[in-house]
Write a structure and sequence with these properties.
Strand content: under 5%
Order of helices and strands: HHHHHHH
Oligomer: single chain
Low-confidence stretches: none
Largest sheet: none
Mean pLDDT: 85
Number of helices: 7
Distance between the termini: 27 Å
Radius of gyration: 19 Å
Number of strands: 0
Shape: elongated
Structural class: mainly alpha
Length: 162
């Protein structure tokens, strides 16, 4: 019984860690894309791929979570351990799933943007590197934050539970 409860608590902390990584990387991506789009506008470059991906990044998780709410099993969410920790980090299985789908869609869109630059290269050579650098940074930030929270929950849970 005790082992099952520990296993469930570990599963919840792992899920919260994953969701924190997704949230921080989404915010990071939004800032990067906004900076790139402003750079394009200031330099009169008529490319709007960063803007489209930015809008997708900001809106898709909310829309997806709303669509899944009608099909959700809310009772299973109430049975999870650590309710105060889940509330503090605003963890719900729906939000986590929506952010995961959003992450995958963002990566696909960034790859498509990079592929578009391979087919029709921009006049400024430096611009070709933007999509690849953004994909790399986006994935790296997600992994670093996820790993950070996993380690913090494992070795110093009291600091995260305050």
């Amino acid at each position: 019984m005790e082992e099952k409860k520990n296993s469930e608590m570990t599963k919840v902390t792992n899920s919260i860690s994953m969701m924190r990584g997704l949230l921080v990387s989404n915010r990071f991506l939004a800032v990067l894309l906004a900076v790139v789009q402003v750079y394009y506008v200031v330099n009169k470059i008529m490319l709007f791929s960063p803007l489209y991906i930015l809008l997708l990044d900001l809106l898709f998780p909310m829309i997806m979570e709303g669509m899944m709410k009608g099909h959700a099993n809310v009772k299973a969410e109430e049975d999870l351990p650590l309710p105060l920790l889940r509330k503090k980090y605003r963890y719900t299985a729906l939000a986590s799933k929506a952010l995961s789908f959003g992450f995958l869609l963002n990566v696909i869109m960034l790859i498509a943007w990079h592929y578009n630059y391979r087919i029709k290269p921009p006049e400024i050579e430096m611009l070709k590197a933007f999509p690849l650098v953004i994909i790399s940074a986006y994935v790296l930030v997600r992994l670093v934050i996820w790993f950070f929270y996993l380690l913090m929950f494992k070795f110093s849970p009291s600091t995260l539970m305050k």
